[in-house]
Structures
1.
Amino acid sequence: MDPIILFFMLGLVAGLLKSELRLPSAVYEFVSILLLLSIGLKGGVELALQPFLGLLPDVLVAIVIGLLLPLVAFTVLSRLGGFKRADAASIAAHYGSVSVGTYAVAAAWLTSRGIGFDAHLPLLLVVLEVPAILVGIVLARGIFSDTHWHKVAHEVFLGKGIVLLLGGLLIGWWSDPAALAGIEPLFFDLFKGILAIFLLEMGLIAASRFGSLRQYGIFLLAFGLAMPLFGAVIGAVAGTLMGLSVGGTMLFATLIASASYIAVPAAMRISVPEANPTLSLTASLGITFPFNVLLGIPLYWKLAEAVHAGLPG
Amino acid sequence: MDELKPHSRKLLTIVTEAALEASLCRDLERLGAHGYTITNARGKGSRGKREAGWDSDANIRIDVVCDDATAERISTEMRRRYYDNYAMILLLSDVQVLRPEKF
């Protein structure tokens, strides 16, 4: 059993038993800043070693998936689930975007097994954050609404996630590799320890969402489990066709399977205020995040292997 | 000793979701508040519990000291724009200030 998964379960159990344990919000903030920067830096260092233009087709594929996935989720939620338009649009945006925490766990899973992955996955992570937010807002409001797009753009592009991931990427890219050795102990060597503390807090947060799960019932539960599986299949097929390695395909599938809980909730709260944030956060944090971390990641590895064996890569 | 003579003002306290901070600050300045104080907060209300553990789970408390007319303008605007969709409460009280030119 991987210790970081056990940290997550410790958080879940402590939360469910109503333990007094609370991480100060400044600690959570710091740990998530370190994670975002580490992922960005690592990607930047690797990206520096390859030509940039070759990556454009993969970036385009990521954008297209990020635009289409929320449309599927929206249709399912409003037609089958009977959710109100704003709620369906907001949940769809969460599922079309990605979770950095889930990505970090999947990357650590690969690394601890000595499996490599393609260098530009962190770049695809950044790219996938954005399109679903815009689709979600348009689905809720219509395209000619009075949405203040400059405010939305500010919220999306200057939010913590994008600034730190992209900032880390650029720093890693432009830095002299020899000089990077000085910051490696903090950002690379301590990565798993930092991830462990992050997951402890995520366990506590996920547990605090279980209460509202009872209230919103079986459809949301089914959606929170089925949507990541659907996303993983799309991601695994797309990743294989893009020519990613098996490790890269698994990470891409995990990204498509994951649901956002940082960038999208903040953007939706401002842009689609009538959507109930409890619904989307219960689904993404209470169901999908624990599912992906505990069961999804090993499953997506098997899926990536199977698709690679079946499709010409 | 004119500086020691107290002057009457209103203290308007807004407790709301941290997500609103940037847009509230713009509103307050536009509506004529000369300043405000923001503190992080957590608590429980009709829209559930906010424990400030992470980004979307945090509250803020904004204190604004201003004259009666500004307090009226701000509370009308808050009611109009935010009451329906956001967790928000407003408290209004009379306070005495010692440096009236600041409010």
Note: Chain A touches chain B at residues 22-23, 25, 28, 151, 160, 201, 204-205, 208, 212, 261-262, 265-266, 269-270, 273-274, 277-278, 281 (CB under 8 Å).
2.
Amino acid sequence: MSPVDGAGAFNPNLPVDPAVREGRIPGRAEEEIPELHEVDCPPELRERIEALMGRYPDRRSASIPALWAVQERYGWCTPEGIRQAAAVMRVTPAYLESVASFYDLLHTKPVGRHRIEVCTNISCWMRGGDRLLDAFKAAAEGDEDFFVTGFECLGACDIAPMASINQRYYGPLEAAEAGTAIEQLRAEAEVLPEKALAKRGLAGDG
Amino acid sequence: MPHQLEKRVLLDHAEDPALRTLDGYRRLAGGYETLERAYRDMEQDEVLKELEDSGLRGRGGAGFAMGKKASFLPRGDMAKYLCCNADESEPGAFKDRELMQRNPHQLIEGIAIAALAADAGHAFIFIRGEYAAQADILDAAVAEAYEAGYLGKNILGTHRDLELVVHRGAGAYICGEETALLDALEGKRGNPRLKPPFPAVQGLYGGPTLINNVETLSNVPHIVRHGAGWFKGFGTEQSPGTKVVSVSGGVKRPGNYEVELGIPTRELICDLAGGPEDGHEIKAFFPGGSSSPVLKAEEGLDLPYSFEAMAEAGSMLGSGSIIVCDDRVSIPHLALRTARFYHHESCGKCAPCREGTNWTVKMLERMVRGEATPLDLDIVSSVQQNIIGHCLCVLGDSMAMPVGAMVRKFREEFEAVMENPELVLDPHAVVQAPPETLGASV
């Protein structure tokens, strides 16, 4: 008989799921909220997360913005950074980790400093998004400064095929421009100025 | 000059970068005059009535009447919330991006007036994480609006308060689903909730919550300013107003075009967006983003572009995003590309969606590799039927509807690919679709 069958009546002879007493991982205690003095959180990060929490009726609403802050500070959502944010927010690190792992833009593994997301969804795919992605990957090959990934629709089908380079949109891009963009990033120069979405007019104005 | 077929209300003056600033918005568009009038002279019910009378339908996908939705919120002293859904992630949709980027104050004014109708004291703009530039623009605009006294405590001395927070997401299509958006905003993984209770009754932090799309809220200042009658002067009886339509894919001039609802679809695609590339023809199109069942050119091009006409044709207007597929697009590959997206974005909470999207992708991959049997085509169809209506939210349906329609309407193309492996032009089609069929030269 499984513990479920005997639900309601306590029988000490039945095997008990260790998670009931010890947390989900046997042999490891339920995770606790880290104390601030245990985590060595940089004061700026702490102040920023505290300010973020103050914007919401419930402090936990600040979890995504807090993880953005961690990612900005450390380059990715490091376990230490997550612990620091958890201590400030008074939640468990596992709680923040569960949030971080859900969202595509929060990185729970180290990634390059320059982030390039190439859209490969329908409209970009029709116009060569997959080849653009290959071109970016080839141009950045072996350089740990770069993180290149294919991405679902970025909401810029009007400039297909396109890419988001360090959180700004560029398109429509020729495969050859991938190499140019990578070189410009290496040289810390302005990236593809004539292809920046910010500089485009309305489609209907010709 | 915009094309004569365009009717710009929301995109009026949008070509002028000055519109982004509060001064420019005031000067060019009479900005915040409506907010001042509404806050000083109008009661909640007056604003609500104007919105209900206008017949404005939600521009995010479902097309539900906005005023009616706002009227569902219970009255009372409990905390109520307004959420602007700016998580535009539907493949093919990029209108909200344009509206936020070019005219952020129009949205803020709309939110403030809608908050009056909903009696909400706290409002949020949930913007998708990828729209970092637009989030910065909104942040700056919100700061200006606070500075000018249009937001915050005791707005314009009327003893009415409204806090507005721009909340940037972090990349998950599912957060555009309204209850997943609420969970994400509460700081959790973005999983949809069981409905009912609907957000109007129990939403953010358990309080009554009005959730509207960016374009819907951007319409609000214009409706309250000019009246419901004026608004109904545009569009059709069941689809009043103008619509910013995103046209993309195999057209010469992809982009956002604001038109009166009910305009012939052909004019939108062929006149405004320039039609297909020379030497090519339109084969099919998605009328309302990637979730809408595809229409063949011959069944869809001559329909009026309205909620009712698209529904009658077995598809939907959705978010108002047209993706055009020309004669080079291989439909089985298109089905696979579409299914992969939903498979990737499924949150995994409901089995029909999690497993259905997974198996659809696997079966379509077999097909384009030439390893499938005709039986697989029937299984793909039945999987789609078993997803529709069986999940907490419509993400699964959003794959099942277009993929189901593709198999139904282009069955011979799937059969041809399965029976003639030489038709599979690229052996790596599973990771990259064959460029010859997809407009490599576009």
Note: Chain B has three domains: 17-232, 242-326, 331-437.
3.
Amino acid sequence: MSDWSQAASNRPAEDLAPPIATATGNRGLQIEERLIFEQGSRGRCGVDLVDPPPFQTRLGGLERQGAIGLPGLSEPQVVRHFTRLSQKNYAIDSGLYPLGSCTMKHNPRLNEKLARLPGFADIHPLQPASTIPGALGLIDMLAHWLKTLTGMPAIALSPGAGAHGELCGIMSIRAALEARGDRRSRVLVPESAHGTNPATAAACGYNVDSIAGNSQGRVDLGALQAKLDTDVAALMLTNPNTCGLFENEILEIAAAVHAAGAFFYCDGANFNAIVGRVRPADLGIDCMHLNLHKTFSTPHGGGGPGSGPVALASSLARYAPLPWLVHGPDGLELVEHKVGKAQQAIGRLKGFHGQMGMFVRALAYMMSHGADGLRQVAEDAVLNANYLRVRLETDLSLSFPGPCMHEVLFDDRFLKETGITTLDFAKAMIDEGYHPMTMYFPLVVHGALLIEPTETESKASLDQFAGVLKALADKARSGDAAPFRAAPRWTPRRRLDETAAARKPVLRWGPEAVDQPAEE
Amino acid sequence: MRYLPLTDRDRGEMLAAIGVDSIDALFADVPSAARRDGLVDLPRAMGELEVERAIAGMASRNVAAGSVPFFIGGGAYRHHIPAAVDHLIQRGEFLTSYTPYQPELAQGTLQYLFEFQTQVALLTGMEVANASLYDGATACAEAVMMANRLTRRGKAVLSGGLHPHYREVCETYARFVGFELAAQAPAPGGGENLAGLVGRDTSCIVVQNPDFYGEIRDYSELARICHDAGALLVVAVTEILSLGAIVPPGEMGADIVAAEGQSLGNALNFGGPHLGLFASRDKFVRQMPGRLAGQTVDADGRRGWVLTLSTREQHIRREKATSNICTNSGLCALAFTIHLALLGETGLTRLARLNHAAAVALAERLERIPGVRLLNRAFFNEFALRLPRPAAAVVDGLAEKGVLAGIPVSRCYPNRTELAEILLVAATEMVTPEDVDRFERELKEALS
């Protein structure tokens, strides 16, 4: 989940950092690293390629003229450059990554190894079916696991990420409504929803109608019922929701939605909290996307690739996007066109067949855990979040009392009259060696701090983290605001000016310097 | 379970600290009717060895491209990936980090995205590129929607040379997002009159270069005609390596380029994950979809990078966003950036030339086979052949003999009998002279 741009103010910080006195600007292990375009030299190359034998080109006179402007670097320069860049990143591998709604859990390396097997990585999506039975078998097995865990009869596998899964789901719902001649114009979205939900509904031609939450951080059933009518196509609900709470009236919500002839879409971003313990089908859900890069631990990779399969109820299954994988007389078959049973499919949402590399990783993750381990995942994720809740509820301001699910929501009341904002507090965490939690989201509380520790943190790790947050909260309350406003001080860069970046965008390195002499 | 650090003792202590007597108490908000007490009907946990054995068993049942003479392209290309690429993208600081929303903790990701954007802009000949989309097909649909917003028109014309998957994705989006498409019939031999289709309601013309059948064309005149009519030219590129050899879309007057970047740094992966590239003119940047990394300064005045122009995006703008996209293809973009950094100007142009040479050599051999006709006048590393009989059966037959011969166009257009005999064949630097000999021999035999 994302942080929120109101967090991007960049007020002048009082300079508490020691002066940077090194000649290079480097600070020990923090090495300044210029762009590849500022290091390259014409004629140097990091890949040795033979020259082709002389031949007559057949490019139709459209040969590219003039230099492209790409820098030339040797392999050691490239390896050093990207190694240095990597050292400017925080990562799960290096520390607790408590971003709420993002599920930053350990990424097993076995999964990386298996996804790189030539039998998966080096096969083409348009090879003859006879040459890929193992690939189709793996997809079928993944679908079986996901269907069993969700209780839903069909899985659409092609969406490229969660938001793409949302599109798949809302398009399927609209197709089902159109098939029954039912033109509806609104989609209901709780105000606590991820930004992708309203963006998806709008992209599919619906008006977005926001529903208020109640004082317990959940959907207000009365407010929902008041808005439900025959013009509502769907409710899009995240459960557990973005306040980290299970929608305890979900069965009533589902019944009300269905009574209005609408569909119940669930944003499955938080499936990690209930996997193996609760099946979405048993909650009355018609359609739910699963973020394989959250619950099933395929690496986030600095922003993707993800994978967003969508579980569909039988009322929506026939609208699932192409391709379909079906059991035919000769074994598994890919259905790539709107023929036969797939005549009502919404069509294709992505090139080829989906994120195979992510499928392999997710299946390896699921098989490693098994039915027992996946249930333990949900339980430990919830246990860890609740442990942090009780460790921190007297130091930070808990937004909603009582047990939470896999993430716990605080707000900024504890910073009242300190002159310190949620942003300042988060940046101070960076100096303590932690990635901040999700800030300013969800929008239903002021200055939100949403913490999701995940099940792959140890108790000692949680104790240490809670200790740091408590110490920072104490320091904030003591009235010492300056270090917070100046934070972070120990990162490769201090607070960055996002306003200036947006006012006069510089989105690429300038070509005017291409011919400048290379520096080594 | 090897990935779960809590011991039963930890769990007991933590439950006590929370003040509940069992984990079930923390799930009390789940309606009792929906609680499952037992395990779901799936196998139990497995060790690393057992999982590896089971999944490697599935992998071994597939014919890997590297194990046979291989000539398939059609929007996914097999190229050599230098070993350093995969090593570097597996560094945990790249692999296991999140979207760079906290820029002070993600300067590494942000800097490579800035480098990536610059590389993509240079390659395509455009002014600005974003930080990636899912793949080329979705980038193409996003390009059409962006053109609709920019022109305030609602009808896009798709060339028959556009990859059928790109066309189909555009059709799906068109139906539900609500815009019109005029998709032209498949055009293996060319001869489309796209200029004649530019009308007052046309938001854009979408062409592909090289097109699905491998043909390279100059779209400069079409760009001029589009602009005169207030429409935009969108150019799709499914083989990004081609831009190391041919005039880039930007120099032909393209307004938006939607491309597939898999060829650089990324394996075939059975079609995903791949890498959507998206480039445009500076003046259109505020209507672009997806993330953008931008340059700025920190509190000490030092150069640094942030995600910028976020007011286009869903997490800020919600239902008014330019796209609903959130997660993109970050790590695939990194692989692309590293591979292209290794190649540089010299390596890229030489690799492109090697590909073209391989394809020319293969075409010359195959078009000599009686009954086989080459349909292209100009091509890069892929071309279309008309065979004397349906291509699908020929491809299946050759697969049985251990040659992956290309794509029968009927796989994408099963109902168009006029395309049944057309075979798409690609040759990259990976093809050896022995592969070519074998292909020629087997094809000759299959057609005799």
Note: Chain A is about 30% helix and 10% strand.
4.
Amino acid sequence: MDLRDLENRCIQEEAPTCTARCPIHVDVREFLKKAASGAWDEALHVLAIMMPLPGIVARICDHPCELVCKRMEAGDAIAVSEIERAAVKRGRITKRRSPLPQKRGRVAIVGSGLSSLTAAWDLAYKGYRITIFEAGDQLGGPLRGIPEGVLPLEIIEEEIGILTQIGVETKPATAMNGGEWLEAIITDFDAVYVGLEPGSPPDSGILSEGCMPADPLTLATSRAGLFVGGKGTKEAACSPIESVAEGRRAAVSIDRFLQKVSLVARREKEGPYETKLFTSLDHVTPQPEVRMKDPSGYSETEAMDEAKRCLQCECMECVKICPYLEHFESYPKRYVRQISADATMVMGSHGKTSKLVNSCSLCGLCTLVCPHELSMADVCMEGRRSLVRRNKMPPSAHAFALEDMGFSNSEKAALALHEPGKDQSQFVFFPGCQLAAIYPEHVLSAYTFLRNNLKDVGFMLRCCGVPGKWAARGDLFEEALRGMEEAWKSLGSPTIIMACPTCYQILKERLPQANMVTLWQILVDAPQSNQAKAVTRKLAIHDPCATRYEPDIQDAVRKIVTGLGYDIEELTLGRDRTECCGFGGLMSAANPSLARDVAKTRALRSETDYVTYCAMCRNALAATGKRVLYLLDLLFASETDAANRRAPGLSERRENRYRLKQRLLKELWGKQEGKLDDYEKITLYISPAVHKLMEERRILTEDVQKVIDHAEKSGMKLFNPDLVHWLASFKPAHVTYWVEYSPEGNGFMVHNTYCHRMEIVEETGA
Amino acid sequence: MKDHWMCGRCNKKLEQGKVQIRYLGKVFAIDVFKCPSCGMVMVTEEIAMGKIAEAEQLLEDK
């Protein structure tokens, strides 16, 4: 995948319409931002970055930016021009830049209209030696005819004075005697610009027909080194800012000519162009233009109020709806740049962006709202694959989840059997590992329901492998998929009845030869139970992000809920615009605090009790304290207020999977319970405080059991005679667990437990 | 004395010492308590969740 292509899709850095339309690309948005706060000096500095002779141009600009202002779609265009006039009255340009060191090259500027003055200004700042020839007695001829109230003469003098200060030589009252005079100038100078603004001498009589017309892109003529503008476009004839743009175009060409580089390369964005920037006007209240009390111009507060109406156009569509994108305080273009810089570093490469790529839930909402369908999920998956390839994936990010996946697919939790007493399967119920972990009793109820309503329903417990996919561990993902396919084939390739929306997506893509149906699509046609368990009559539906493009499943769920007699509240961000609960993409594994914030944000979208149809969504949302039902609660829950049910933690979820398999084998298939390992027989007493610690540190009950089992068998333990506690450690795989404990009844009281991934190299030698 | 730990095998009071720890191919020495006789090491919660956790994070970010 080409990260650069993805980077280019983000348009946040594109210019707003005003700047793109401005012939000299003034940063109007930034100017208005400064003006809105009354920072007039700063506002003028923003103008002066792109604007030559800012004192003059700011007063007389004919403001084409206003014609394309987005504000027009919600009120009137911003009165940029009037605000500019207010700014030049109130602000002062306190620091001016210095010209670049002098370059070789003498340039003659003929005429002193706006295009000529601009060309002189730009080229002088670039370090060339400039001489302005003017037929009239004073420079800036036509400018002097503008009413004093609009453009005071002293301003013209002041800005022409700046030209002199930066070394421009001026020759007013020059007698320009036709073609011969110009010929001499062309010989004498390295380049010549002739500005032909109306009313500004010289007349075009000095130009021989052979030199015209000038090329509109470069203003070059057939005579090398001679450039002509000021009347080259119709607009320039009546638009001061177009004249300025002509002068700038000439300056760019002359600079290139003198530097002996291409006159034509990469000039597409000179002058007005169409921007790709998108700005949403949702939630924008229409506001009319601020009226001025005194028709001669805005007062300070009027100008500030008018500037405040600026929408400060930007895209940020994805950042506005995604707490993850917001969390890293920038926007996708920059994120992709960081990720791709990290991925292409060969030597001494650093996984600095690992937190960024591993924290995305891969939920796909950004792609849906992006005007150019940029997928941060694709970007982050590419980033993750790169980390794994370069051996830079932090072990702490996904190790726990991958190990948990291994457990789900081990003998301890996996299972594939025909219905009890049958030797074939037309269907197989596949609840998915998290439903088995969170609602083992609902799995049993649903299976009973399916057996009562369908024929030959086998049963399959395991993990679809998505943690491997999310962790960019293609090897583990493929292994899990192979296991899945083998288990399915061992049952005679029956139709798979799925409860987990994520499993459904994975199998749809990777086991396309299988017939599949969701539990919800079966329940919608089945006779409904009437023992509904919600406390309220209205429920808000939280669609899991894996169903974003599954309207049929979303509809089935709504039918079930209304069929049970509930009213439905649709969340603003529902159906294809739904948000992740914080579990997707292993966000909660790599960035638990962000995942909690994401879940909280989602939980706060409505005060109504939620109902969802992904067990993991239910768990993540319920962990924030939100009242949430799992859809099967409405059919099978035994408690009176299932929305209030506690979300089981990591240990409990793993144990539930193990116990579910044992229970199914015993109760339905009459098979013996598996033999327990020694450590599993150890009884633990764990206080709520220690339990909380274990959840935070991702330490499972079985990890603690293994430490104590090892310590008690080997005698490798430490003793504290004052506390009468033992302390021991054990490293079953990659993590070393420490447990402080003491004997209690027939088992052990756990006082504390912690862990680290660093490995102790030497243990012997005093 | 809450922090008074003894080796459960040798019954000796732990003494201050150094131990090498390794992570992501890098090796460091850290201060720990260990048994003067058999060398059994004690990593306290403070060190595990403090210095070691910080070092793990730093190495992972590199």
Note: Residues 15-61 of chain B form one domain.
